[in-house]
UniProtKB/TrEMBL annotation:
Family note: Belongs to the beta/gamma-crystallin family.
Gene3D superfamilies (alphabetical): Crystallins (2.60.20.10)
Function statement: Crystallins are the dominant structural components of the vertebrate eye lens.
Domain of life: Eukaryota
GO biological process, one term: lens development in camera-type eye
Domain called Beta/gamma crystallin 'Greek key': residue spans: 34-76, 123-165
Keyword terms of this UniProt record: Eye lens protein, Repeat
Record-linked Pfam families: Crystall (PF00030)
Coiled coil: none
Record organism: Denticeps clupeoides (denticle herring)
Protein name from the UniProt record: Beta/gamma crystallin 'Greek key' domain-containing protein
GO molecular function: structural constituent of eye lens
InterPro entries the UniProt entry points to: Beta/Gamma-Crystallin, Beta/gamma_crystallin, G_crystallin-like
Taxonomic path: Eukaryota, Metazoa, Chordata, Craniata, Vertebrata
Secretion signal, residue range per the UniProt entry: none
């Protein structure tokens, strides 16, 4: 798919670990329903971006990407409570804070300058590398994440987080 929805198209109704067998490149995207994370590498790796219903005619310039969508993951709708524990160090070490709502600045709210691991107990979350939900983002579904570095995120330090709410669908 070229910019502005030109060329071949591929429709995904769920997770797709490798879109290259369907499309050699993808430069525009339309989300007709639901929410998705899209990735610039196969197998849900690399840069990620959250997409909800709407048209993204030239998402590459919008996101600042040099490459195109290579994989996507559907985010299931969730209507329950939200709960995440964030930790100052890897392997759930150091300070721990349990959150049930969005947090614009982990540093301002918790006086925590590092967030290196987390445990998502309930809900689906987006974590951002800068305060006020700015910068690169990562999607976390329920599970234990012992080391962001070992997950391939390098020395990323998350500074804000928010819930993926059912109102976004």
């Amino acid at each position: 798919i070229g910019q502005n929805f030109q060329g071949r198209s591929y429709e995904s109704v769920g997770d797709c670990a490798d879109m290259s067998s369907y499309l050699s490149r993808c430069h525009s995207c339309r989300v007709e329903s639901g929410c998705f994370m899209v990735y610039d590498r196969t197998n849900y790796m690399g840069n990620q971006y959250f997409m909800r219903r709407g048209e993204y005619a030239d998402y590459m310039s919008m996101f600042g990407w040099n490459d195109c969508i290579r994989s996507c993951r559907m985010i299931p709708m969730y209507r329950g409570s939200y709960r995440i524990r964030i930790y100052e160090r890897e392997n759930f070490g150091g300070q721990m804070h349990e959150c049930m709502e969005d947090c614009e600045s982990i540093m301002d709210r918790y006086r925590m300058s590092n967030c290196m691991s987390c445990h998502v107990m309930d809900g689906h979350w987006l974590m951002h590398e800068q305060p006020h939900y700015r910068g690169r983002m990562w999607y976390f579904r329920p599970g234990e994440y012992r080391s962001f570095r070992e997950m391939g995120y390098g020395n990323i330090n998350f500074m804000s987080m928010r819930r993926i709410m059912d109102s976004w669908y």
